[in-house]
Amino acid sequence: MKLLEFTDKGIYCEAGDFYIDPWKPVKRAIITHAHSDHAKWGNESYLCEHATVPLLKLRLGNDIKVQGVAFNEPIFINGVEVSLHPAGHMIGAAQIKVTYRGEIWVVSGDYKLENDGLSIPFEPVQCHTFITESTFGLPIYQWEPQEQIFSKIFQWISNNKQDEKASVLLAYSLGKAQRLLYQLQDKVDRFLVHGAIAIPHATLLEEGYPLPPVERITPDTPKADFKNAVVIAPPSAEDHVWLRKMQPYSLGVCSGWMQVRGNMRRRNADAGFALSDHADWQGLLQAVKATKAEQVYVTHGFSNAFARYLTESGIQAFAVNTEYGDEEMIANPES
């Protein structure tokens, strides 16, 4: 019996009788982070890192049964030791370490190695078996340091102001949007945001995160407010009539998929910024190496290619099918 198994409901620990990020309702779920492909409605109970609790309640309802635990705080479930460790993907994002009878498995969820200033930075955890994502598991995906990316974003905003255009940035509403707000707050006086961003933003402000105030866009927002404004909206707003009121505007997409120029053209964007909350190729390799795992299972993304590379590099690796995805997905050939 493997310590963790891939089932039709999710990643299952038979010894502890719990699931990690299940995609179908189960009795006991341990959640890596609050994105919708990892945290589903309908489980009888949830366990997650403390910072994820209010985000889960926001998404799934205040009536869910949820327990928060601190990073690096071991708990026991039916004799199986479980601890959560920082993943750096977004606020509250955790890797799940499962230990039983001397065997250690780690489920990464989603992760990135660069410190974004808001989430607790990624912490490598040594284990026998590592379950890793591979959203950007190809050598073409190599991120610039975020300081350079944000410098380019601010320069783009400045150019738009000179042209008397609003700067509309598309970014995933939970995680990426807050990262933009946090990093740009010292350079931008005023942010207008879509309701999908304003709602989690308010929750995080209540929790004490150092984020700037924002103004929620409503049907009553005057057209004059958008002149030279910085607007942050989710990708779903891209082709919506919602944007017409902001004309003239320049559209920028913040996503790791912008590393490939053709994706920017397909999005009809004026600018693309390869800003991702997932590890790039080198980050994935660095993370796997740091675990010293003897065996690796590769989930969503370029799983076949990444598993093959690891195997050829001397690490036993297997691609597995799951229902996890990418919140900033545009085009992934393996999806």
Automatic annotation (TrEMBL):
Domain of life: Bacteria
GO molecular function terms attached to this record: RNA endonuclease activity
PANTHER family the record matches: BLL1145 PROTEIN (PTHR11203:SF49), CLEAVAGE AND POLYADENYLATION SPECIFICITY FACTOR FAMILY MEMBER (PTHR11203)
NCBIfam families noted in UniProt: Xnuc_lig_assoc (TIGR04122)
Protein name (Swiss-Prot/TrEMBL): Putative mRNA 3-end processing factor
